[in-house]
Amino acid sequence: MSKEIDVLIGWRLRIRRRLLGLTQKEVGQSVGVSPQMVHKWETAQSTLYAATLMGLAKALGVNPGYFFMDAPAGPGQPEEGPTAPSPGASFIPDQ
Length: 95
Prior knowledge:
Order of helices and strands: HHHH
Mean pLDDT: 82
Number of domains: 1
Radius of gyration: 16 Å
CATH architecture: Orthogonal Bundle
CATH superfamily: lambda repressor-like DNA-binding domains
């Protein structure tokens, strides 16, 4: 599953970068890495850290969730994703 997510994130990164007309160098500079590192992310040769993903989202003008759209459900997650708690639900665990 990890590799699938890396491929999805890389694909979305490349699509968004090209849509904005940015080079790998420009994107890399925005998060403090080389163009080669951006290439590795786009081709799923390297995994992104969460903090870097947040920086990329900001640089590309998207919500971090953009990178995970259409991601397969993880183990133990329903196919439609997590459900929101009902209004008024208690967030205090039972004692």
